[in-house]
Design brief:
Oligomer: single chain
Strand order of the largest sheet: 1-2-3
Structural class: alpha+beta
Number of strands: 6
Mean pLDDT: 83
Radius of gyration: 15 Å
Distance between the termini: 40 Å
Number of domains: 1
Helix content: 25-40%
Order of helices and strands: EEEHEEHHE
Strand content: 15-25%
Low-confidence stretches: 1-17
Number of helices: 3
């Protein structure tokens, strides 16, 4: 499934799609590339720390939902839409064992947080 957005093109040598201005990647383009990497590999390298996506409205998004909704994320982030899919960054969940995806409600793995007893 593909999508087409004005100003989004493949950057040669990187094998990924981002928003460009001339020959330079924009901040939004860098964010989209980070989201795509996180969706592909849900752990940071080096270190293997669990990643999650931070939306502009403060919501947390798991990497699986980011993978499923990449078209909406790319459109909102590159065009500045305030529709709930605009991304402000990708981060590591270091210790928050109560962090859940705001889209699917699944827990987002933490790197060092202690497991809570059921």
């Amino acid at each position: 499934m593909g999508y087409s957005i004005e100003g989004v093109r493949t950057i040669r040598g990187q094998g990924t799609t981002g928003v460009t201005k001339g020959d330079e990647m924009t901040e939004q383009g860098n964010i989209i590339v980070q989201v795509k990497r996180a969706a592909k590999e849900k752990y940071a390298w080096p270190g293997g720390y669990p990643l999650f996506i931070v939306l502009a409205n403060g919501a947390a998004l798991c990497t699986e939902c980011a993978k499923k909704e990449i078209g909406l994320i790319a459109a909102a982030t590159s065009q500045g839409y305030q529709d709930g899919w605009k991304v402000s960054g990708v981060d590591v969940n270091w210790e928050d064992t109560s962090l859940y995806c705001d889209h699917c409600s699944e827990p987002i793995e933490s790197a060092y947080g202690e497991e809570q007893e059921a």
